[in-house]
Amino acid sequence: MSFPWANQYQPKAPFMRWLDEKLPLPRLVYNSVGAGYPVPRNLNYAWNFGVLAGFALVLQIVTGIVLAMHYAANAGVAFDSVEHIMRDVNWGWALRYAHANGASFFFVVIYLHIFRGFFYSSYKAPREMVWLLGVVIFLLLMATAFMGYVLPWGQMSFWGAKVITGLFGAIPLVGEPLQVWLLGGFAPDNAALNRFFSLHYLLPFVIAGAVILHIWALHIPGSSNPTGVEVKSESDTVPFHPYYTAKDGFGLGVALILYTIMVFFLPNYLGHPDNYIPANPMATPAHIVPEWYFWPFYAILRAFTADFILDAKLWGVLAMFASILVWFFLPWLDRSPVRSGHYRPLFRKFFWVLVVDMAVLFYCGGAPAEEPYVMASQLATAYYFLHFLVILPIVSMVERPEPLPYSITEAVLGSDHQAALGENATPAN
Amino acid sequence: MIRLIGIIVGLAFTFVVLLAFIFGASNVIGQGYLVEKTAETEFHEHPKHLDLQSNGPFGTFDLQQLQRGFQVYTEVCAACHALKHVAFRDLAQLGYNEAEVKAIAAAVQVPGIDPNTGEATTRPGTPTDYIVGPYPNDIAAAAANGGKIPPDLSLMTKARHDGAAYVYSLLTGYSDVPPALTKQFPEFEVPTGGYFNRYFASLAIGMPPPLTDDQVTYADGTKATADQMAKDVSAFLVWAAEPNLAKRHQTGWAVVGFLLFATILAWFAKQQVWAAVKPKHEKA
Fold this sequence. Notes:
The complex is a heterodimer.
Chain A: H1 14-22, H2 25-33, E1 38-40, H3 49-68, H4 78-87, H5 92-119, H6 128-150, H7 155-166, H8 175-183, H9 190-219, E2 237-239, H10 240-265, H11 295-303, H12 312-325, H13 330-333, H14 345-366, H15 373-398, H16 408-413, H17 417-421
Antiparallel strand pairs in A: 1-2
Helix pairs in contact in A: 3-5, 3-9, 4-5, 5-6, 5-10, 6-7, 6-9, 11-12, 11-14, 11-15, 14-15
Chain B: H1 2-31, H2 39-43, H3 63-75, E1 83-87, H4 98-106, E2 109-113, E3 120-124, E4 130-131, H5 138-143, H6 163-171, H7 179-184, E5 195-196, E6 204-205, H8 226-241, H9 245-274
Antiparallel strand pairs in B: 1-4, 2-3, 5-6
Helix pairs in contact in B: 3-8, 6-8
């Protein structure tokens, strides 16, 4: 579906006409990310991150496939095969640093994409399905990244795998057998490494499939925009190409500059030194920490230190999973009819508290499990759950939103010709 | 309904985590400190600053220094530590010519197989051999060193926080136990076979102080103080861990430069595309 004023694909070259009759693939591209997709004219740079995430996915798949040609998923040689890539494969060091930092790039843009969604309530009707698919993509991404970090088979790979699969051991009754089944043994070893490699290769393509659904679902209502007012007329939109291809092209350039600075000048900054020590089941690292993008959730996991009916560890596991699963319910927890945070004074304040709260969780998740970090993460965890499950529903009931512009055109130009004529009038042209 | 369930679930998690907070806080108040002070928390020091030519975004290798560092590795460190990810052929990058690399390799005996009998033996190394350590296996390495295997040094400067500075500090950080430490923690004791080192996490390291002044004689005439040797071998280990570092920096500048140019072009392209639909008062 699209707006009635969307440009129609008209192939000019004979070959393209021929192809369009047999397989309208160019038409699909034209209608998805070309001139055939009308987009609100007022999108700011916060709307850049979806395209950047798509770019990151392609980058990771391309670099990952080439790396897989040189990597050996065997506990005996995995670590050395990574060093072989770093030293003996032509430009292998560039590939590996591009892939490792590419994961961080992916998470940076995904988090910004998600927080864009929080602020502008992108999850609200009619885009619930876009949001739900987005959360699925995020979960798949976390699983893929986790398994990818295990592959170099360094100390953090091994102990990270042990801690994370250990979470399943907290489940009552079936926990321990489940953990052994998942790992193919009592501790991470060759069986685990091999299946993680297999899944790490598979899941990106599952993500690609989910991304296609995500974009498909988006194209039914069309993109949201910073006012949260839906598109009313043609003057509210511009074609995706060339307007947003040009704008996203600039955004991509800026993102790539930051990314390549990391790849070429600080390639190990976001990693952990211990992962350059080969996996050793007999030596536990002083502080086991996951990669930075898991820190907020790791902080939530570790915040539950007291038994209450259930085991503390089980509370931690439940809370960690719940902290992401709660996003699935956002469209129904936040019932305010106004989407954009710009017009919601009370919601806006709590949004920024959430940002600070996530920053505290992030910091505590990367810090050692000692005071005062544990206490700070406990308070931050409490706010996290209160924010989504208690504050959001109540705010959306009691808040008095500020007046909205009549249309996107009015928000941009200061007046809308259509507004003066009335909603159902047909414009003269 | 969904919001009601949500509020109940949210309050449940909040209650349990605040309960844990109260336990934690009362514990802290009860004991009167956040983190218990130990000899390690009070006397373990962060690495000293180390200036190397490989530091920073323009960093390259000082080949003279790398050769000196390699000499220190061969004459001192190699007695216990391997460098198994580095092959003799890689040493050409330090400025040695082919004949020199062959000579360096041939001076080392590596495990081999007798071509006539198939028995395990040793043979002179060739440039394709890797720089293996002196021990035939981990058990032998541990047995000869009080139960601890001397770690491989190939990745040492990437496997520790502040890599090269850490190696340099550790090599020059041996001393007697400071009186202030003994005064504050009378029960602290360096275990038998250990040496006090304020840059080592547990303050007691198994490695004896390896460097003394004039232990090696540098071919380029540089005075071989312990400090100089520690610097040189740290610089060498930076290369061993990341032989492509200089090329990486060089490539990085080209890539970032290209992207800057492309991004500026993209900005002007975007401005031009949007000029037609920009509102008049917001002239860009």
